[in-house]
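Reviewer 2 asked us to include a model.

Predict the structure of this chain.
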Amino acid sequence: MTPPPSAKSGKHNRSITPSRPMRSELEEFAERCRAWYYQQDDDAGRLMTQTLATLPPSQRAPFARLQASIRSSYHASINARRDAEYKAHLSATKPGGSLMPHSRAEPRGALAKKERYDRFDRFIRTWCTMGMPGTKPFFHGLWAVMRMQVIPQDLGGAGPFRIEWEIDDAVFKESGGKEFMLEAIDVLKGVLAFEETTSLSRSPSTNSSVQYNAFAALSPIHSRSQSQPLPSESTPDTRAPKTPPISSRTQTKRPRAPSDPFLDTTTLSTSYSSANTGISTSSSSAAEEPLTPLTPNAELDDLFMRQPPSGRKFGECDVYMRTWTAPDLPNPEYLTLLTLFPPFITRNTLPRFPATSSPSRPADIEEGEVMDEDHNKLKVGTGTMWLGSKRRTDGWQGGWWTRLKLWFAQVFC
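Predicted model (structure tokens):
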């Protein structure tokens, strides 16, 4: 009988099981990832990128998942810290409390009006520009609230009622960075005297945040181009592109029969399959190293499931919508503040509330009155606005000159 061919003499060898990555290697890689993300250590970032670039294909998945887990923990800590800063500054700021003491003593006086004008003017010129598209929806909604406050109720405005504006807290935290968040709270609540309260509806921005699973399918977005430094010029690329083998080119054109002698039918039971890891065993790297994909080791689970330093995960923060009630300012001051908005905001179409001939207050749900929410709510810029139940104080219409200008606008507009 002819002896079976040896492994050395065979041209098409079966895949062999590779050696697992050592726990010390993964721990060292994890420390480099934490140093890069949490401390912005450039040397650690280069070593992290170099490690991923030089790994064998069969061992790349555990390292990539470990890097993605640490990156998710870092972003979770950033979100938790920003949320804490937002809530702390919001609770510390009182309506009208950011004005000077003499302005707070007489909020309707000339000095208070001038201070509000100057502070709001500086806020608009800093953050409401064409070069900052992220803040445009916020200022569009703010302009609509202030503009409809001076429109009579029979023309679709607020009239004697104060508008309630429900917006997401993420608008403050993510539109223009930390400086915009702090200054927007300070101007809206501390200077203009907006009143805010937590809404009962949850924020839609929390629906997209999910907790990261270390052994879930590796997403293609976890590539070297995201959140990683560029490799140093002194480190050459040691992996030259290879021409795919014939089997990989023909396998993508037509399905192969089970009896095909050139088809590798290795069973992948509990290993990382190509569908789960996104790394194909018949790619160009498989011609260089025909190794069986690596099975995750249970001893390394704690490296992936380690809690972020902040102690929180994505989706754990209770984020709700927030309702901001328009300030109780007279129409003349509203008209003066509206002149500060740039033309790319004021040229937008202004919707109107359902016009009512009588200045009756809006329907109160607690008293059993029916209110068509979809009919009475408007969406302008960002968030939703409607007529609130709070009335403005006497004298909100201003003097005879202001009423005359609004009357001309009512007749000819």
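The two ends are 104 Å apart (CA to CA). DSSP finds 16 helices and four strands in the chain. We have added this to the supplementary material.
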